[in-house]
């Protein structure tokens, strides 16, 4: 099936506008891309993961970070702020695994130490958009290597 964002152009444009707005939100693009990569790894979205990895490289994410993002807790390549963003990405991707709050207070407090309210909003919207892309591409079985304009 053709990607629904192409079949319903207004939807695709709205998604793109939201993504562009988040990129203006004072969170480093490298951090956003790390969050997207981690979410795509968890969600099993091969098309998204492939696209996220390419975009992460262009944004300046290091080889060490890309190689160890799945094991970010044990890796020395991430700042505390990046770790907080990665923890949020994981919490969002694993919401149904939780018996309590999707984002525990300790994680929220850690995020607040590194990001102001607007930056947290950017992270939440970015991660939600990334999840949307994973859902779409998984449903239509879009293969890795697919590119979007």
Structure in words:
The protein is mainly alpha-helical and 149 residues long. 68% of the residues lie in helices and 0% in strands. It contains 8 helices and no strands. It is globular, with a radius of gyration of 15 Å.
Structural class by sheet pairing and helices: mainly alpha
Gyration radius over CA: 15 Å
How large is the share of residues in beta strands? under 5%
Order of helices and strands: HHHHHHHH
Shape: globular
Percent helix among the residues? 55-70%
Q: Residue ranges: pLDDT <50 for 5 or more in a row?
A: none
User: End-to-end span in angstroms?
Assistant: 17 Å
Mean pLDDT across all amino acids: 89
**Biggest sheet: strands, sense, closure?**
none
Helices, by number, come to: 8
Q: How many beta-strand segments?
A: 0
Task: Lay out the secondary structure.
Blueprint: H1 4-7, H2 9-23, H3 29-43, H4 46-59, H5 63-68, H6 80-93, H7 105-114, H8 117-139
Helix pairs in contact: 2-8, 3-4, 3-6, 3-8, 6-7, 6-8
């Amino acid at each position: 099936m053709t990607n629904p964002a192409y079949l319903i152009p207004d939807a695709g444009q709205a998604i793109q506008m939201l993504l562009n707005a988040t990129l203006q939100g004072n969170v480093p693009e490298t951090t956003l891309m790390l969050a997207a990569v981690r979410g795509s790894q968890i969600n099993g979205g091969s098309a998204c993961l492939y696209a996220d990895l390419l975009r992460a490289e262009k944004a300046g994410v290091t080889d060490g970070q890309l190689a160890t993002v799945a094991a970010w807790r044990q890796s020395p390549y991430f700042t505390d702020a990046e770790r907080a963003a990665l923890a949020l990405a994981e919490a969002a991707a694993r919401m149904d695994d939780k018996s309590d709050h999707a984002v525990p207070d300790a994680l929220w407090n850690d995020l607040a130490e590194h990001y102001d309210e607007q930056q947290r909003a950017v992270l939440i919207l970015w991660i939600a958009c990334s999840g949307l892309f994973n859902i779409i591409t998984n449903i239509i079985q879009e293969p890795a290597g697919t590119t979007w304009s």
